[in-house]
Amino acid sequence: MQTVEAVAHLREGMHFEVEAGSGHQVSLDMLDDAERIDGKLGGGFSPMEMVLVALAGCLGITVLSIIRKRKVEVTGYELRVRGERASSHPKVFVEIVVEHVLTGQGIKPEAVERAIELAETRYCPVSIMLSKTATIRQIVRIVEV
Fold first, then answer.
1. Which residues of 71-84 are buried (b: 16+ CB within 10 A; e: fewer)?
2. In the prediction, which pLDDT does 15 show?
3. How far apart are alpha carbons 33 and 16 in whole angstroms?
4. Helix (H, G, I), strand (E, B) or coil at 30
5. DSSP letter (8 states) at residue 71
6. What is the distance between the alpha carbons of residues 62 and 114, in angstroms, rounded to a whole number?
7. pLDDT at 43 over 70
8. Gap between the Cα atoms of 67 and 64, Å rounded
9. d(Cα 31, Cα 143) in Å, to the nearest integer?
């Protein structure tokens, strides 16, 4: 079993500085776009934004690793993630759309789709956890250069 740790330190208001066991840090604040105060956002990501950030990172790393093993030439890869939340508490994500935009030469859509399927079902724990509460739709766009 593997243990993952993080420590959150209150800075002011609802702003936390969080340090992961790896030593990396991130700023979190409870304010998000729907909760602006005096037109201002908080001092960092909202926790729900970080969930989408984690999904983008996990899927991106996993998919790229799989398609590179198949000797596919990828020169650019962008993931655009949008989540729709429930209207009542606890306001979990109910639908998430992930758009994968890959740039390169000779990228076969079926190879990318297979890599996404493997990520969703076997290798990306963030996607697997989120799929328990949300419908996750994947869109693939390939830009040939």
1. ebebeebebebebe
2. 86
3. 17
4. coil
5. T
6. 12
7. yes
8. 5
9. 36
Tokens at residue 43, please?
């001092």
Three-state DSSP at 19 gives strand
Q: Distance (Å, rounded) from C-alpha 86 to C-alpha 73?
A: 39
Annotate 90-140 with three-state secondary structure.
Answer: CCCEEEEEEEEEEEEECCCHHHHHHHHHHHHHHHCHHHHHHCCCCEEEEEE
Which tokens is 135 given?
Answer: 């419908």
Instruction: Round to whole Å and give the CA distance between 59 and 118.
Output: 10
Give dist(CA 69, CA 63) in Å, integer: 10
Q: Could you report the per-residue pLDDT of 55-102, keeping only the tens digit for each? A: 999 999 999 999 999 988 899 999 999 999 999 999 999 999 999 999
Neighbouring-strand partners of residue 73: 105
54 neighbors 28 (Cβ within 8 angstroms) = no
| Backbone φ, ψ for residue 41 (5° rounding) | -90, 170
pLDDT number for residue 40: 63
